[in-house]
Design a protein that fits this description.
Elements: H1 17-21, E1 30-34, E2 38-39, H2 51-64, E3 70-75, E4 78-83, H3 85-93, E5 98-103, H4 108-121, H5 127-140, H6 145-152, H7 156-164, H8 170-177, H9 183-189, H10 195-208, H11 212-225, H12 237-250, E6 254-258, E7 263-267, H13 272-286
Parallel strand pairs: 2-4, 3-5
Antiparallel strand pairs: 1-5, 3-4, 6-7
Helix pairs in contact: 2-3, 5-7, 6-7, 9-11
Length: about 290
């Protein structure tokens, strides 16, 4: 299979830098197109748009106009947006007839890549939106988590931990999307064994306004009460450093449980692809 080309080129791969900076010297590349003919990007990873920031953009456009053109491609009955949905929404709120645009001929793959990368690199995605974006890169483009991390300049464990959030119940994910709980709260809730327990604990966190640290303690109490984990008599910090070293080497969360005569090592994986990646790393060390 041909190796997947590098992601993360962003808009600079499709628009020369001279066209991005301010557009004044390349007016021939910018067209005024009817706003009514522009369809939203079907690959847009963002589900939530900050109302306050959108209103700020509306006020800016009302005063100065749309300074940076949106990026579109031609469609059968108009245009499809590639990048610039906030500008498109703000223009629609102002009921503008036209919007400045750069028209590019791109395929679906490029369209999806740009939509994902533009949002990820700008750090505008909610943790769940980001996790879904990473998941789409693995399922639709066959990217490994190593490749995503390398492309975005993120740590491998960051990618793995983000995707783990998709293992939470849908109602808990919606709480993260709406900002009712943070990614830190959500990661703590993953420590509970069932979706019902995760959702009940989530409601407690919201109703009592618990911090992430308090949520971790709540999860620990519930695990002990349910008998899913025995309370250790004494914590061995050496095991923490060993687990951290293994976690760094494997790019995923590792836990070590040490008993009197024996112990267990728990290595987490988040997809079959991720499991095969870890297996490959382990077996490669045996050769």
């Amino acid at each position: 299979m041909t190796e997947k080309r590098a992601l993360g080129r962003g808009l600079s791969a499709l628009i020369p830098q001279r066209e991005i900076v301010f557009m004044k010297n390349s007016a021939e590349t910018v067209m005024q197109i009817p706003l009514s003919q522009v369809k939203a990007n079907k690959y847009q990873p963002r589900a939530e748009f900050n109302r306050e920031k959108l209103n700020d953009l509306v006020n800016s456009i009302k005063e100065k106009g749309v300074i940076q053109p949106v990026l579109v491609r031609r469609a059968i009955d108009g245009y499809e947006l590639i990048a610039g949905e906030r500008r498109l929404r703000a223009a629609a709120m102002l009921k503008l007839e036209n919007i400045p645009a750069i028209i590019k001929d791109v395929n679906d793959v490029d369209m999806l890549e740009i939509a994902l990368i533009e949002n990820i690199q700008r750090e505008e995605l909610n943790p769940i939106e980001e996790a879904k974006a990473f998941e789409r890169l693995t399922t639709e483009f066959n990217f490994t988590q190593d490749k995503i991390a390398q492309t975005l300049g993120k740590d491998k464990s960051t990618i793995s931990n983000a995707i783990r959030l998709l293992g939470l119940p849908q109602k808990v994910q919606e709480c993260v999307l709406k900002g009712a709980i943070t990614a830190g709260h959500a990661k703590a809730l993953l420590g509970l064994p069932t979706e019902n327990e995760q959702y009940r604990a989530c409601n407690i966190v919201i109703n009592k306004g618990l911090s992430v640290r308090e949520t971790e303690r709540l999860v620990e109490r519930r695990r002990v009460e349910a008998g899913t984990q025995k309370k250790p008599a004494k914590h061995d910090h050496n095991l923490d450093s060993i687990a951290a070293e293994m976690q760094q080497a494997l790019g995923t969360r590792v836990k070590i449980f040490h008993g009197k005569k024996r112990g267990t090592i728990q290595i987490e994986y988040y997809s079959i692809e991720d499991l095969n990646r870890i297996l490959g790393m382990i077996t490669a060390k045996k050769r």
